[in-house]
Every structure is written in structure tokens, then in C-alpha cells.
Amino acid sequence: MLRTAMGPAIALALEEADVVEVMVNPDGKLWLDRHGTGRADTGVVLTPQESERIIRLVASHVRAEASGSSPIISAELPETGERFEGVLPPVSLAPCFAIRKPATTTFRLSDYVKAQIASPLMAKVLTAAVSEARSILIAGGTGSGKTTLANA
After folding, report:
1. What is the Cα–Cα distance from 119 to 102, expressed in whole angstroms?
2. Sign, CA torsion 40/42/43/46
3. 39-98 pLDDT tens trace
4. How far apart are CA 74 and CA 1, in angstroms?
């Protein structure tokens, strides 16, 4: 139901297996980030009212307030588990949001070592830190793999 209320372009994009993120910028342009090909403008433009309606709809589903005094909405969408981040003015020039689909593949630390992304020593240190309940800071840009690493 929530997907349908977001409109056909967003609902269809969320159904596509290669789409990892759906974004609407403050200018209303709908962008899709596809696995393997990157971000592309869809040519679809939402009005500020449509974007704000979607943000408020998601907020109501998680029993949060979306307003000028509470302009940032972070939520996990029900049933399908996509992560939603919506922003309203005055934090942004116009309503905008991103919907990130859950990863379809789970990586283990051994996969990072095998791919030479991490050394065996790094994997050992991370494993020990988790076992000892130490704090670990994972930082990076959007789509850089922070959640994937944290789940490893």
C-alpha cells in the first residue's frame, strides 16, 4: 500500500532487482541508482507537494512528525525493509528523500579478505573488537558500504 501511494514511477523502481536506491532531489528530479551502472535521471519530476506528501506518509507509518520543527524523517519501510531518509525545509530548499533497498547479498569478513579489500590482520582486529564489544566507527559516503561492512 505504501509503495502504491508513492506513485507508479517509484513503485516500479522499487520492484526492479537492479535498483539499489531511489532518490528525489530538492528540484523534484527522480534518480535511480542501479547496481553495476550507477545513478541516472529518470526524466520523472515530482512536485514539492508530491515529495512532501510521501515524506509525511512515511512519517505517519512510523508514528513520527514531519514538520519544519522536525524536518528529518529516518525510517525503515514496513514489510520490505527499505531505509528511508526524508528532509523538509528549512533543512533543504525543498522536500527531498532517498529510499535505499536492503542488500541482496550478505558479505562476511572472509569475503573482504578474499577480495583483498581487507587484510587478514584487519579482519582479525575487527573480529576481536566485536567479540570484546568495543566501539567501532565506520565512516564513508552514501553507498560506500558502511552497512554492508557492519553486517559482516
Report:
1. 26
2. negative
3. 999 999 999 999 999 999 999 999 999 999 999 999 999 888 999 999 999 999 999 999
4. 19
Q: Are 75 and 64 in contact (CB under 8 A)?
A: yes
Domains of the chain, CATH where assigned = 2-100 (3.30.450.370), 109-151 (no CATH)
51-55 long-range contacts, Cβ below 8 Å, gap at least 24?
Answer: 51/24, 51/94, 51/95, 51/96, 51/97, 52/88, 52/95, 54/5, 54/6, 54/7, 54/10, 54/24, 54/86, 54/95, 54/97, 55/86, 55/87, 55/88, 55/95, 55/97
Bridge partner list, 85: 74, 98
